[in-house]
Every structure is written in C-alpha cells, then in structure tokens.
Design a protein that fits this description.
This protein is an alpha+beta fold. 44% of the residues lie in helices and 29% in strands. The protein has two domains: 1-118; 122-233, Immunoglobulin-like. The strands form two sheets. The chain has a four-stranded antiparallel β-sheet, with no helix packed on it. A hairpin with a 4-residue loop joins strand 5 and strand 6. It starts with a helix and ends with a strand.
Length: 234
C-alpha cells in the first residue's frame, strides 16, 4: 500500500510539473480570479490537491505504523521482562532443588551407613557333637554322668539333646536350627540328669558361632570340661 501511495505521489507531481510547464495555466487579461484559471490550470490545481491529500494520508498512515511499532516494541519488552523474571525464579527453584537433593543424598548416605552397621541376620544349624564332663554321680550312685545339653540363642530356648546315660564323654550328634541369628550369644548349658532333678554341670558360651571346641565353666567359673560343635549351613 505504501508503495502504491508513493508511486501515485510521484506520478501526480510529475503530471503536475509537466502540466505547469506545458502551457498557460492562467489568463492574464481576465480580472476575475476563478475565470483567470485555464483548463490546464485547473488540471494543475487538481494534481496539487490530490498530491496534498495523498501526502496527508501517507503521513497519517506512517504515524499509525510508528505507533503500532512502538506498541509492539513495548509489548515485546514487557514479555522479555516477564520471561527474565520467570527464568530467574526457575533458576532459584533449581538451586533450591539442588540443595534439597544434596541434603537427601547426605541423609541417604547416613542411612546406608546406619544400615551397614546393623548386623545381618542369618539362619544356620548347630550340631552338638561330643563333650567331656566331670563325674557328677560318684559312688554309691550309679557311676558316671548322665549328660544332656540345653541350647539357647540369647535368652530364647532353641532345644535340648537327649540324655546320654552313664558317660563322662558323651556324644550327642544332634543338630539344632538357629533362626534369625545376628550377634546373640549361643549358650550351651550342660546338665547331669539325676533321679529327681537335673544338676547343672556348667555352661559353654559361644559369642561367635564357629565349628570347634568350647570350654565348659561351672558356677564358680572353673573350667570343668569341654564340648565340640559344628556349624552347618541352613
Ligand atoms: Ca548328679
Ligand atoms: Ca545323674
């Protein structure tokens, strides 16, 4: 549209100029103003008038275009400012999230360390093999000890062996399942079975269950014998 107006303006100016220089535009012998103007003169006046109209239209359009451009620029500037504010807010949230993740990682590492420090629980079989015990039934009672063993995991009773009658070197060869074991002490309480009661011979304390021989201590903490055990997988 602007191009068409410019071409029209240039054309009108050229036509007006050619009209003005192409012949007389006024009559010198006519005293009345309007009658002084010749037909060529009126044509020239028309060209000037339309040139003026087109010039005004062009200026109005140019001004409107400038206002639109300024408005668009202001809008873009506002949008850019809003986008920058959002970017800054997002950046701040990102920093907060990074710090939260770092804190969570630290907590997770702490929990992992704590979990690693918790003893792993396992289940295994403990076999009571042979033992050596003192003679708890000296004469005139029937000679030799009638031994049996009570098995405990911590304070929990696991089971007991059969009585081996009249033998100071009894072999039990009985296995017991030790469930959910962590760090509890395995206690083997060795008894002598008597007619009316069970006489405690002593205890073997096993803090770390391994196949081997463990000493039996009486109530005065004197070593009175030993007992052999074997640790088997579940
Ligand atoms: Ca006895
Ligand atoms: Ca006995």
């Amino acid at each position: 549209m602007e191009l068409a107006i410019n071409i029209a303006l240039v054309t009108l100016v050229a036509i007006g100029a050619l009209t003005a220089i192409g012949g007389e535009t006024s009559r010198q012998n006519e005293s009345h103003f309007w009658r002084k103007i010749t037909l060529r003169g009126w044509f020239f006046v028309s060209c000037v008038f339309f040139t003026l109209i087109l010039g005004v239209i062009k200026e109005i359009r140019s001004n409107a275009a400038s206002e639109r451009a300024e408005h668009a620029q202001t809008k873009l500037r506002n949008e850019l400012q809003t986008a920058n504010q959002k970017l800054e807010s997002a950046s701040q949230k990102l920093q907060e999230m990074k710090s939260l993740i770092a804190k969570l990682e630290k907590e997770l590492n702490k929990m992992n360390i704590e979990m690693d420090s918790i003893p792993k629980r396992s289940t295994f079989k403990l076999k009571i093999k042979c033992a050596s015990v003192p003679d708890m039934d000296p004469r005139p009672y029937p000679d030799n000890t009638d031994a049996w063993v009570d098995v405990l995991r911590g304070s929990m009773s696991i089971g007991r062996t059969q009585v081996i009658v009249g033998n100071d070197s009894p072999c039990f060869n009985e296995s017991f399942r030790i469930p959910d074991y962590a760090t509890e002490t395995i206690t083997l309480i060795v008894y002598d079975h008597d007619r009316n009661d069970n006489e405690v011979i002593g205890k073997a304390l096993i803090s770390k269950p391994e196949t081997g021989t463990y000493d039996i201590f009486d109530a005065r903490n004197n070593k009175v014998g030993y007992i052999q055990i074997e640790i088997l997988s579940n």
